[in-house]
Amino acid sequence: MTVAMLDLFIASFVTLFVVIDALGVAPIFATLTAGASAAHSRSMAIRGTIYATMLLMAFAYGGEWLLTRMGVSLDAFRVAGGLLLLLMSIEMLFEKRQARRETRAETMLDDDDGPEDISVFPLAIPLLAGPGSIAAVMIFMSQQHSDPMGQLVVVAATLTNLLIALIMLLIAPWLLRVMGHTVGALITRVFGVILAALSVQLIFDGVKNVFFGG
Length: 214
Fold this sequence. Notes:
The chain is mainly alpha-helical. The protein is built from 9 helices and no strands.
């Protein structure tokens, strides 16, 4: 792997790691599957990750085509995606994102009549494959639209993150006990700062291309 490809892998991996936020999803998953059998929880984790993978891959390879049909330029999407990721980073810094996820989990638990299929909603969409991760995948893939090897690197970074997410979901109960709220909040804030920097860079790149032609 060349230095450029390694840099691309690291950039896309870190961005998706922060956006998917497997460490933040795991406690929510543990709450949603509380009281269910180990087999049911394992099934939900595996199926939810598979559905999220299918959705992200669909947007990875079909997102640029969709934008073209809608008359949206890649730079416009880059700026919009950067703004979306910036808003997510602000929510992470002030723990609003986690609070919203917990509210969603409590709502589902209130309506629970037994083990429920949460693999599609809310696990795959929007916890794993939400607007932020979809935007991030499309942006990185669009930057490599003329380089198949670069696209494979982005796909590899995406799949690696989803594999990590699956592992986190499978060990969610244990992870929740070990990590605790304080450590989780600290990690979330650090990730929020990193995501803010990455999103601002995306906005700068998009604006520069629009006004100065790259």
